[in-house]
Amino acid sequence: NDIVMAAEGGEDWAAYIPGQPSGTRVRFYMTAEDTGANSSIDPAGAPGSYYEFGIMPSGDYLVLLGGYSHTDAGMYQEAFQATGRTADIWDWDDLGLPTLEILLAYSGVIVDEGGYVDASQQALLSSYLDTDDGVRKQIFLLGKDMSYYSSARAWMTQYTGSEYVKDDPGWRELTSTAGDPIGNDETFVISGSYPD
């Protein structure tokens, strides 16, 4: 559906997307033309490329962002769009913790935490992973210093099977277990400073 933008003063124009029901994915792009018939489109490549947001829960996956150095939300949207999947983004530093019911509405949860998983986050993720509803829970943890702080170590060990060794143990490769559904005996190279 086309929505016409209206001048709001100066060089500002706006359009309002009507409210949508929960579960809806909204994809949009913008076109503009001036009085000289010069036109522009955003994002480049539209309508094949577009901006997207969802009325939760509407994606296949929920991406939980937090901490001081998480991945930009737009990168997740681009990656999921490129694979034909969808994701909703939740910044738990700004929005607080989602409910367990929200987590359970997704095929999987990605936690991108720039620091460690604190006690309230651990409790929520534990409830998610421990829910016995006949559906296998998928969670992917990514971040910096997730086991560096001692308050997160026991939780990380319990739910990931990993043990904190020390700050920068000098290891730069990890080989997954044969038959593991994620790595299946692959070797992953770690780059950056101080991999824990």
- Strand content is 25-35%
| Residue runs with pLDDT of under 50 for 5 or more positions | none
Largest sheet strand order? 8-7-9-10
Radius of gyration: 21 Å
How many helices? The count is 5
Topology, number of strands: 12
Helical fraction equals 10-25%
Alpha-carbon distance between the two ends: 49 Å
Mean pLDDT: 87
General description of the model:
It is a single chain. The protein is of the alpha/beta class. It is 21% helix and 26% strand. It has helices spanning 73-82, 92-95, 100-104, 119-130, 150-160; strands spanning 6-9, 12-14, 25-28, 30-33, 39-42, 51-54, 61-66, 87-91, 108-113, 139-143, 173-175, 187-189. The strands form five sheets. Strands 8-7-9-10 form a four-stranded parallel beta sheet. Strand 4 and strand 5 form a beta hairpin. Helix 4 (119-130) runs parallel beside helix 5. The longest helix has 12 residues, at 119-130. The radius of gyration is 21 Å and the shape is elongated. The N and C termini lie far apart (49 Å).
Task: Give the structure's gist in a few sentences.
This protein has 196 residues and is α/β, with parallel strands linked by helices.
Describe this protein with a few key phrases.
196 residues; alpha/beta; four-stranded parallel sheet; two-stranded antiparallel sheet; 5 helices
